[in-house]
Amino acid sequence: MDPIEAARYDEYWRNAGIGSNTTWEDFVKANPKSTIDDYFRLIKEQSPWPDGYVPNEATLKSGGKFEMALSSNQPASSPGRFGTTPNTIEDIEYVRNNLAVKQEWKPDVGKVVLYEVKEGAEIPILKGPVGPQVDLTTNTYLNGGADQVQILFDREKNMMDYLNIINVKPLK
Questions:
Q1: Whose CA is closest to 18, among 142, 104, 139?
Q2: In a domain, 84, yes or no
Q3: What domain range is 162 assigned to?
């Protein structure tokens, strides 16, 4: 297939929401034993964990820390539900590639917040490696691989009843 035809095919996949030639090729490089069905499942299911991985159940106890990437206008007092190991997020590229945060999920990554579990509080979590993602918005395969925690509180629960903000720093 000539480059012009390949580019048109790539655009067709992306517009149909079923992938792209570029992300398929990157997926195959990272997962040489995987199939097209594995690739399509990744796009459709968008699991936060690697394919076939069962995350470990755990509890963050008093003094436990994690950090989280937030958008510029997201208050530090309104954290999401996925965090990572303290002092690992250095830049936006790390958030996109190692934490596999797709553009459509968080278009603006402006800061990183370090949280600590309050005295007497406990937070149920799942923990394990970040699974890969396919970001069709940017036509990019995101490897993932960093450590992550998924906080198992629903969105109605006020996380600040359980957390202290230790530090907020801008990301570039």
A1: 139
A2: yes
A3: 46-170
